[in-house]
Amino acid sequence: MTSLNKEQERGQWGSKIGFILAAAGSAVGLGNLWKFPYMAGKNGGGAFVLVYIIILFLVGFTLMLAEITLGRHTQLSAIGAYRKIREKWAWVGGLGVIAGFLILSFYSVVGGWVLSYLFKALTGALHESNPEVLGSMFGQLISSTTTPIIFHAIFMALNIIIVFGGISGGIEKASKIMMPALFIMIILLAVRSVTLPGAAEGLKFLFVPKFSAISTSVVLDALGQVFFSLSLGMGCMITYGSYIDKDTNLIQSATAIPLIDTGVALLAGIATLPAVFAFGFEPAAGPGLMFVTLPAVFSQMPLGGLFAVIFFLLVLFAALTSSISLLEVCVAYVVDEWKWNRGKATTIMALIIFLVGIPASLSLGPWANIHILPGRGFFDTYDFIASNVLLPLGGLLLCIFVGWIWGTENAIKEATSDGKVPFSLASAWVFLIKYVGPLAIGIVFVRSFMALFS
Ligand code: PFF
Predict the structure, then answer these.
(1) Average pLDDT, the chain
(2) Is the shortest distance between the CB of 31 and ligand 1 below 6 Å?
(3) pLDDT tens by residue, 103-137
(4) Residue to probe by mutation, ligand 1, list 36, 105, 326, most atoms within 8 Å of CB
(5) Which atom number of ligand 1 is nearest to the Cα of residue 34?
(6) Cα 90–chain centre separation
(7) Which residues are 373's β-sheet partners?
């Protein structure tokens, strides 16, 4: 038997659409379905959406192209990619692996809650219209000791099964099934929501910006959300980019992925907020919007039980296609750097991530009094360090690296395969990656530190 050569061991996407679906799958996740609607709800609706879209165009597309291009050029995951171009920068990739590791350890805990809610929806246990009862149901789940850990374990096990299958046989295949299903389900829910009597109020809230509601904190929240939602700043798109073949046009991909991601975020807003308004709930309900307010909304709709099942299945799919990308960042590191085979790398990494996630789950219940950072337990500490520190820092360093160290000429040559791109587009991208990106991200980063000590 011949042993696998390097490329076979690393794997490659089987098709262009497979790559786009997998990368869009990474981007579309809890960030879109859970976070975007409540962030919009909290930040004045249309004002947030408008600022989000502006930042998406200025920073989102720019960084997406930079990450994918760096990955394809080096054909290596985060650390190797930086190292291949400039030895001394390898640690930046290392920050990304740590971020992925940390994000997955708490993301999987939330993924476990989603699984548990899917079971509740299937058994009819969510058929309850009183938000207070639903609130205490949610509180009880996340604060108990064993149940959330069991669901966290099942969620990680699903990740192992998919990532074990490799790039085209595991991640791509899973994304090709789950992503189209997700599109159909979210459109169905959005249609259901906007056809409810009184839904117009919700649509107005979401799409008519009140300019007076735009404040610094809205802008900063939107910037952080663009990062998390597009899976940027931690080398995830570098890793996914490293499995692309040389004739894929990266500019098209880097345009399609953020558009799909934003489309789903907006559809999630359309599926959620008009329904919330139609039934007289509070749009600024915060993180509980998905687990508390929405089930209450569903229970008052015709066919609500069915829509609750569809909704939590949709969220599970979205969470899974994102979590596998987080696991893949860690697995690719071990495969590339330590030369482990994929099976061993996947199982051991997932097991360690599962163990690190246990304190995150316990910190919402029995360990609530243990603080790691001031005022923050394990769950919030992981989230804060990864999302508010490591991702912006990773994004900032990526801009500097691609803009000033590797060089935009090299990047453009790689992105287009033939080096041809309209001059105005190229110069806009150069300006964005060299100046606008670092400045915008630098601001979020400074704010993160200020938030830590305030
Ligand atoms: N983009 C995912 C979401 O919106 O839920 C979360 C995520 C996945 C962040 C992968 C970072 C990442 F590398």
Answers:
(1) 89
(2) yes
(3) 999 999 999 999 999 999 999 999 888 878 888 89
(4) 326
(5) 5
(6) 24
(7) 376
